Every structure is written in C-alpha cells, then in structure tokens.
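Q: Hi! First time asking for a complex rather than a single chain. Here are the components, and I think there are two in total. Is that enough to go on?
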Amino acid sequence: MPSLDPRSDPVDLTAALVDIASVSGAEADLADAVEHALRTRAPHLEVVRDGDAVLARTALGRPSRVVLAGHLDTVPVNDNLPSHRTGSGEDEVLHGLGSVDMKGGDAVFLHLAATLTEPRHDVTFVFYDCEEVEADRNGLGRIERQRPDWLRGDLAVVGEPSNAVIEAGCQGTMRVELRTGGVRAHTARAWMGDNAVHALAEPLRRLTEYRPRTVEIDGLTYREGLQAVRVGGGVAGNVVPDEAVLAVNHRFAPDVSAERAEAHLREVFDGYELTVVDRSAGALPGLSSPAAAELVSAAGGRVAPKLGWTDVARFAALGMPAVNFGPGDPTLAHTRGERVATAEIRHVAEVLGSWLGA
Amino acid sequence: MPSLDPRSDPVDLTAALVDIASVSGAEADLADAVEHALRTRAPHLEVVRDGDAVLARTALGRPSRVVLAGHLDTVPVNDNLPSHRTGSGEDEVLHGLGSVDMKGGDAVFLHLAATLTEPRHDVTFVFYDCEEVEADRNGLGRIERQRPDWLRGDLAVVGEPSNAVIEAGCQGTMRVELRTGGVRAHTARAWMGDNAVHALAEPLRRLTEYRPRTVEIDGLTYREGLQAVRVGGGVAGNVVPDEAVLAVNHRFAPDVSAERAEAHLREVFDGYELTVVDRSAGALPGLSSPAAAELVSAAGGRVAPKLGWTDVARFAALGMPAVNFGPGDPTLAHTRGERVATAEIRHVAEVLGSWLGA
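A: Yes, that's all I need. Here is the structure of the assembled complex.
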C-alpha cells in the first residue's frame, strides 16, 4: 500500500495524493492509504471505512460540529500522471490529474485531521468515492442513506476547487427535452407533410429572447441561465422530419425551488411537450449561521456566489448551511493540463486552520 | 441461367423479372437472362452487354429515334420475394420486390423489344444497373461516359413508376448545409459563451416563412419546396454548443437552373455559411417535341408534372426531351408491401405499343 504522511506539508501531501491514481470506481488504493494514515497518525479520531469512502470524526463535546467533505476520485487519466512541479516560491505550480479536482482540498482536510487535535468545533471528515460519475453511484449519497449521522453538523465545507475563495450556496440545474412532432413526407411533396424541425423555430425564438434573472441573496449575485445544449432531428435527405428534440439546461438561483423552476420552464415553453430529464435544487448561501460567519471572517471576508452545482446542495437538502472552499481553478478541472498554484493550497490550509484552531 | 420469354404477356414477364432477384450490385443473373432473351428472341436488334447493363437497338433508318430506359436493380430484399398475385381481372394485383420499382416498366420495354420488329421510330432499349445506390455507381452514367451514342435520340421514356400516367420533366433538387458557430462555455457561466443552437432560430424562422413558388410550364404545375431535413448540434448536457448544422433540401421547378437555384438559396439564407452537399438540375417537360406530342396523344392526352427527381434529368442534360412513364404507385416503391395493379402494366404496354406500332 502506498503510504501517506498526513502531517506533512499540504502541498507535498497533495502531490502524494495525486500520485495514487483513483479514477472513479478504482479508488480502493487511495482509500486504503487514507484510512491507514488516519488510523495510525490521527488516533484522536473515530475512523470508519464505508466501501471506498473513509469517514473520521472528533467527539470532543463541542457545542457545534462542522463537516469537511471531499471526493477521492478523479476523471480518467489523460497523460497527466504522475505529478510534477514548475516554478518556485509564490509562483510554484503543481501539475497532475486531480491537482485541482480535488486532491488539493483533500490534502488540506487530511492534514487538518491529523494535526488539529483540539479543534474549536467538533469536526467530521468525509473522504468519498464516485463523485465524477452518475449521481446514483455518488458515495456521499450512499453515506446519506446508510450512515446519515456522519453528515450531520452545523456547517459543511466541500473542498471542490473555488480559486481558494469561499463560494456560498449553489445554483440549481434542470435539464428538459422539448419535442416537436410533425408528419413525414417525401420532400418532393412537402405539402403532404408537416416539418417538425421547422416547428423548433418558435421555441428557439423564445430562447434567444429569454432574459435570465440576476438575483441578489445575502449580498451575493447569482446569474441564471437558459441554454439549448442539444438539438436533433431528421430521417433522410429527402424526407420531411416528423420528430425533433431540443434539450435545454436551466440554471436557477437558490431562491427558487426545483418545483418552481420547472413551472417557470413550462410557462416559457407553453404549448410544447416538455420532459424533465434531471432536476437538482440549488442551495441557499446560509452565511448567517455562526460557523459560516466565522469562516468568512477567517477568509478575510471574501465570498463569492457558486454558480455551478456541487455536492454542497446535498448538504443544503439536509437543512445544513454549506459552502464550497478549495484550491484550484475549476475551469482547469477535467483538462489534461490540470494544475494548481501551490500558494492556493497553503492559503486554504491557513484559513481553515485559523478558523478551526484554538 | 433463369430463362425469360420476352414475347410473353407483360404481366407474366413482370412476375418472371421480379422472381430473378437483382439487388443493386448483384444484377448479373438478371442481366444475363435479359441479354440471352434479346439475343435469342429479338434477332432484329443490335445487342451489347456493358457490365450489368444490356443495350439493344433497331437500325431501320427511321427519321427519329426514341430511347426506352429502365434500371434492372432493386433495393434490398425485405421478405417480399418471390412474387404472388391476388385478385383477378381488372382488380388483379402483382406483389413482390421490384413489381413497382421498376420491373413492370422493364417488362413492357422487353416485350416491345421482342415484338415490335417494325417500330415507327428507331428504338434504343437501355436496361441498366445500380440506379438505387450512390449516383456515381449509376449504370446510365457509365454508359453516358463510355457509349454516349447509345443514349442519343429525339425523346427518352424512363419507365419509373408514375401510376401509368405520363409525367413530364422533373424538378431539380439541391441539398445544402447551413452551419452556425458560437463559443463553448459551461452552462453555469453561459454569458461567457455564444450558443450556436440558439443561432438557428433565425434561419428556421426564414424557413417557416418561406413561400415556395408554384410554376406553370407547358400547362403543367410544378410545386417547389424548401424543407429542413436534419438538424444537429450539442456537446454535453452542461455545455453551451459552439456548432450546429441545419440540412435543407430545396426542390425547384425545371424553369430554374441549378446555379440560379443555388443563388436563390444563398439569398434566402443571406448572412449564413452555406455548403452545397448535392445539386441536380431538373428537366423541362419538353412536350412540344413531335415524338413527345405523339406519345401524349397515344396516352389519351393525360400528362402530369414530375415532382421528384429521376434519371429523366440525365437525358434532359443531354439536350433531349424525356418523360417518365411506367406502371405502379411510386409511394409503394421501397416498401415491403410493394405491389402493382396488373391493369397498369397492360395499359402502359398498350400505350407504348400503339405509339410505336405501325
């Protein structure tokens, strides 16, 4: 088993985590190493292995508890392992699969787990599997169903890359398919048919004229969106098509429930057949909770809205405030050139350390 | 080799032709049988074998020559061989692959080849291969390149199914692809992108508002058409698409050249990138030629415009008037239930026989 020293420098620890490949579904080696590191180097924690997730927590009787959660898996290797570094000092960059998404966050959490023996809040650490694949394989979902007490707390911090800025809440996302029908005919006798592709002109017009909302919540600005993500239709080069489909992705601010967002889409596309393909509610920023306010303060007051959807929403659905805070530029995630400024890893470690430290 | 009696009743001969399978590219058996029948039972004709095409002609020194052309191949077998008959008398129906497209026409031509030893016009018979596949495999194209004298004449009759009504001229057809571009972005940050699918709203609006021409030529009414036949675009469920394509099929009356039709489409879709995928000119009806006028008269004066594109246009491109005249309902072509009223086969045989007979 590859060995990890969880008390080592968070940047070195990030590199060590990157160098243990852990593509979704094949996280066992990394989960073994994390479990062993916690059992041997963090004896003050209760440690549980759940499939390829590793859970650990303090039980100090503090009045509040925070959950630090990070997934261990990555997207497939793309000629970007093992890790290497370029630059030095403040300009040092760590390259490699998972350096952004999200072994930098994992490394900080693992380092805090081993070094913070007397945190200000009780802390639960959740290192989980299968975040990068279908939602129903997500390890956090399995833990929620089978060990819900391990996710309870007063605030959750998900270590997904956020450029080392606290991102609060997240927008909801919904995908719908709009289908138009028609009557098939030979194009030489087109008047005997009814063209389902032509029938997309009106829904596309509504899309182009749609003005998405910009919403302020807790001082954060969320920008909604309504975008076609796929269009398809056609039978043959000489046939009037009798079916076409337009797939649309709606991103909605967390002041709107998934139900209300769906009702809104049905209004926008009134008169058309709409099928909801998937639907995930957003999460309100929840910055008014005391633990969250302390964290924002430790981060120097900087906070931004989260526009994409992350597992933060799973905690929000449990009624917990949750924020996203991790090193790395999310636009580099899933790219071959994935890389992180090591200064961001150190910054996140310092903020969380000063927030949770004595 | 299966044997054919070209002097037998045209309906029996149609059934015999249907029962010799001749899917495109595998017409050799049928071409062998046709060649043998002509060499042995029509000694008054010059016969040439060209690949799997069979050519035959009189050389009587008549002042005019007509070309009767039919393809020997069919689309793939679809559980519709061998032939069988239902009904009787005027209601008799012959079922089977090729009964419509176009062994009824072939049978009439073969029967005339063997029985009309003293036709009023010199006659060239062209039984050719590979009409049902890519245009560059078409046997008529090969003959045009290699034996152009075999296609020359004052009128061509193509025996494609036309409900036993003379169809004159044919419309042109053109396929274009319109591409829209954009900028890819995550849908959570859609304002950083530019949606290529949304950009289809305007060309689709133009399509829905387009009013195709109706054109009168030689007393025939041609109805043009402009139809989307395919639409496609999309990267992933959470990505603003940066490319989309709309394929459009234009059917245009034979008073417009392919060049002018293309210029018209470029005007309709002004401002968009357009690629011509294929383009085939139509054919003017040419009913004013003496041979054509005689044929129309023999058919009792009934004539209709041809809206689809057929090999008639190949003859028109050679500067010859050409009509389509054959038994069978073209909408049954290429269907498993392909079938022809035998009365239509007899009607076509009678009309052509009285036109060409002494």
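A: The first helix of chain B runs from residue 10 to 18. Let me know if you'd like any chain examined more closely.
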